Amino acid sequence: MTKLNCVNLDQFMEEFAELEKEITAVNGKNNLLEIMLEDANRLIKFYLTKEKSLIEERDSLLITVSRLQQTLQEQCNLRVENERLKNNMAHMKRQNERSAEDGEAELQRLVGEMKTEEDRHKRELEAVRQQCRREVEQAHRKGFSQLEAKDAEAKKLLEEKDMDLEEMKKRLKDQERERQSELLKLQMEFGAKLARVQNTAQWSQQQQQQQQQQHGSNLLPQSVFKRVSSPHR
């Protein structure tokens, strides 16, 4: 004979209802946790995106700072180069002035020598003329034949002295022309060097201005932090 177990149906139904309540509560908690997990994932994505944006902003700022440092170094180098060019130009100007003064002094010396030589030749010529006059007077006393010989000799001496004087004048004029040509050559060389130095200084100044304008455009105000819209929950 089979033994029958007695089951309290009312108690079983109560326990089953409690179990359903617990299952419903657990499901509610699971849904809430899933919602919180989705929110956490969205926050993680948001902060990752923000971190990436900040890293890019940092890298951009580092590049800008590096370019600024390079620009400052180039400007310092240009200032040094400009100062060197100015010193070279001033030195060349002083050197040219000294050369011009030396040339002028040499020219004055040559003019003085030419004047002294010309005066000496004039004195010698006057002495020869006086000697010729004396010899002519003596020749008049000694005879007509001797007068003609003395006169011819005097003319020959005068011609020789005149030729010497003309040769001296020509030589002094040639020296003066050479000195003037040398002075003109020095002035032209100085002008060419001065023009090259000025062109180089002007080019350096233009390069500096262009670099300042180019890097000035990179210094526009930038936002350190980019605006990132908040995630939608």
Automatic annotation (TrEMBL):
<keyword id="KW-0175">Coiled coil</keyword>
<feature type="coiled-coil region">
    <location>
        <begin position="82"/>
        <end position="189"/>
    </location>
</feature>
<feature type="region of interest" description="Disordered">
    <location>
        <begin position="197"/>
        <end position="233"/>
    </location>
</feature>
<protein>
    <submittedName>
        <fullName>Coiled-coil domain containing 152</fullName>
    </submittedName>
</protein>
<feature type="compositionally biased region" description="Low complexity">
    <location>
        <begin position="205"/>
        <end position="214"/>
    </location>
</feature>
<dbReference type="InterPro" id="IPR038827">
    <property type="entry name" value="CCDC152"/>
</dbReference>
